[in-house]
Amino acid sequence: MNHNCQLIVFSNKAYNAIIDETFKKDPIETGGILLGHVLDNGTWIVMEVLPPGIHSTHEYAYFEYDEAFVNYLANSVASKYEQELSLLGLWHRHPGSMDYFSGTDDGTNAKFAAISPCGAISGLVNVDPRFRLTMRHVAYPLKYDIVDFEVGDDIIPESYFELRHYPKVGLHPEIDSIQAEDVKKNSGTNTVPTSEHPSKTTTKNGVVNIKEKSNNRKRAIHILEKTLMVIGALTLIYLFFSLFSPKSEVPHGQQTTEIKKDKESQDKDSKEKKASTLPTKEKNDKTKEKEKNNNN
Questions:
Q1: R_g of the chain, CA atoms, integer Å
Q2: pTM for this predicted structure
Q3: Rounded to whole angstroms, what are the CA distances from 212 to 43, 144, 150, 217, 251?
């Protein structure tokens, strides 16, 4: 079994929950509990992120979970999946750009790391001014390693999203079979670690190579970025040549000739208009003269 955490993958729902809780409590500290699966290839999948609880304590530079609420909710949420979720770790926000753990955080992280040989994962959120999440693996007794993370339901095997009851058991399942299964699964529960009650986590086999999916996504993004860069460069080159390329100019002599032609054309039109008015005037004069002679 690979006890080192090499990659963390968040479901869309889980990552959205962290952002939502951070912004709702802004600017004070808050946090949550991470539930999911640990794969044999060193990948940790965070399926659910639990809220800190009704009676949790929130201050600008201090935060404390509502342990009773979180313990109850952890077991309730974990059991709703066909592949029951395990307690992976926690996250909380720090003020400003403080992206390292305090002495109090070290004590909490050590408790989580003692749960399993795999250790735990712990996240720090900063808003400076953009949302920023830093994930670390915590090995017992207290060794931190920053771990890359990915977000996306498409990276996670579909089997991990299957719910325990519906639609697998249909609309009308038998309660006896469900209760028997509950007794079987209740041998191991998800409990937030305190000095009074330790917890236990399990590891799952990676059915699908999640790292390969993650690498494929990174390659696709890289290719897209390169393509956009090439398109942008070609657009800039086109604009440069359009703006600064020498424009074809009409020779000065040809311009003068064209001006003369335009002037001659205008003079010709003017003469034609005058000529069209002369016959009418002459005709009127002759008519007047004829009427004068008739009167005499």
A1: 40
A2: 0.66
A3: 11, 25, 12, 9, 66
Cα separation, 7 vs 23, whole angstroms: 26
Element (H, E) at 198: none
| Choice among 131-135, 140-144, 196-200, 216-220 with the minimum mean pLDDT | 196-200
- In tens, the pLDDT along 74-114 reads 999 999 999 999 999 999 999 999 999 999 999 999 999 99
Q: Which residues of 253-291 are buried (b: 16+ CB within 10 A; e: fewer)?
A: eeeeeeeeeeeeeeeeeeeeeeeeeeeeeeeeeeeeeee
Residue 199: strand, helix, or coil: coil
Q: How far apart are CA 71 and CA 52, in angstroms?
A: 10
- What is the C-alpha to C-alpha distance for residues 15 and 47, in angstroms, rounded to an integer? 9
